[in-house]
Amino acid sequence: xxxxxxxxxxxxxxxxxxxxxxxxxxxxxxxxxxxxxxxxxxxxxxxxxxxxxxxxxxxxxxxxxxxxxxxxxxxxxxxxxxxxxxxxxxxxxxxxxxxxxxxxxxxxxxxxxxxxxxxxxxxxxxxxxxxxxxxxxxxxxxxxxxxxxxxxxxxxxxxxxxxxxxxxxxxxxxxxxxxxxxxxxxxxxxxxxxxxxxxxxxxxxxxxxxxxxxxxxxxxxxxxxxxxxxxxxxxxxxxxxxxxxxxxxxxxxxxxxxxxxxxxxxxxxxxxxxxxxxxxxxxxxxxxxxxxxxxxxxxxxxxxxxxxxxxxxxxxxxxxxxxxxxxxxxxxxxxxxxxxxxxxxxxxxxxxxxxxxxxxxxxxxxxxxxxxxxxxxxxxxxxxxxxxxxxxxxxxxxxxxxxxxxxxxxxxxxxxxxxxxxxxxxxxxxxxxxxxxxxxxxxxxxxxxxxxxxxxxxxxxxxxxx
Length: 466
Ligand SMILES: Cc1cc2nc3c(=O)[nH]c(=O)nc-3n(C[C@H](O)[C@H](O)[C@H](O)COP(=O)(O)OP(=O)(O)OC[C@H]3O[C@@H](n4cnc5c(N)ncnc54)[C@H](O)[C@@H]3O)c2cc1C
Description:
Layout: E1 13-16, H1 21-27, E2 40-43, H2 50-59, E3 66-69, E4 85-88, E5 95-97, E6 103-107, H3 112-122, E7 124-125, H4 136-141, H5 149-152, E8 159-165, E9 171-174, H6 180-186, E10 195-202, E11 204-205, E12 210-218, H7 223-236, E13 242-249, E14 258-266, H8 270-279, E15 285-291, H9 294-297, H10 302-307, E16 311-319, H11 324-338, E17 348-354, E18 376-384, H12 390-412, H13 429-433, H14 437-447
Parallel strand pairs: 2-4, 3-4
Antiparallel strand pairs: 1-2, 5-6, 6-10, 7-11, 8-9, 8-10, 12-14, 12-15, 13-14, 13-17, 16-18, 17-18
Helix pairs in contact: 11-12
Bound molecules: flavin-adenine dinucleotide.
């Protein structure tokens, strides 16, 4: 440790169970499954506030667990602690653009809305989240698939450097030339190497306006295969400028199964993206609008998230293709799960069809995020208001995510594993990090030999190579 100052005297806020509503607000997360009750929550406002907090937690007998919160959106309890310490980075959310506008520097507790606000004002763009409330920290450390990934790759492929607080209290810069192994590891290796208090990303020219569609199809036996065929055909000729999100939903008032297709594209050319989706099968809802920029785009789903049940569990991963048998089997299982049980009918399945060509330009061992061959991502989401539905939803999410993973492995001969950003922590480090796990274990031994970062998908240090 390099500092011995009192963590309770930091410039930022310190919250405990005695703080009343402040404590309730501070432990709140996007998913109720992520809420635990820590002893103390520290809100640092300065990077130098953090080493004394680490020192304090380590010095207790027994030492206190340390959890780090970015945006608090991950559907696991990794950014929370039962009885330990939470370092909530929410007040470290400053964003600034370099004078030449080619790089944007973002503190580790910012959410993407903070970044897009500056981008909007300064007329630049960055590869970030489709949703404003997602934390830059967790999103980036898990790779980061965003609206501009078809054009510019993952968020980590646009990361120029980072400032990291290590478990021994040192604050270091990681880049291709400074601490290069650490820089490699944080690009997909998650929270296992330190607290990233600052990211510097490459910027791009303003991409908007975007054409954004909302199409809803009836989920009858005739139309579902037709919608899927339209998606498959569209995907075969997909441009890097366009993307589809496909979701299984049961909207009110009748709550019958529907397929929601959200096509969007850079530029105002609506017809190019939408015509097959309007002509091949007639959608029940057929809306298209022009959205000026990512800030506005990232607020597009605010109304639906405001009402979405907060008992949310997600598991997700990658698929090399949207095979007919797999898609229809998942559709069938989702229909069965959500049929006749209003407590679980908000549960869904989502397929993200972003052009993977740019992502695949980076080699599998170039960053810790190893899934680089042609792929798309999916997420299976259990949502409910009631805890009586938890077991059903958890079983559904586990079984469908496993089914998709196994189907993909069977079809391609390659297991694409589990995505850290949508993992639950019981999958094992090999499933998440694949062939990059041995190198990650070596880097862990150098940068966190005491395993201070012990939440999430834990990487065991390998001291043999030191
Ligand atoms: C509705 C929804 C939609 C999503 N859509 C996408 C998407 O389109 N693309 C995509 O790539 N992902 C997506 N995700 C996944 C999302 O990126 C991850 O859940 C991510 O971890 C959230 O980051 P956070 O900072 O908000 O989370 P948190 O819960 O705060 O943190 C998640 C993990 O990261 C760690 N962490 C956070 N910040 C830091 C930091 N600065 N330094 C060190 N460790 C840190 C935490 O300790 C924790 O282990 C989505 C998730 C949800 C729930």
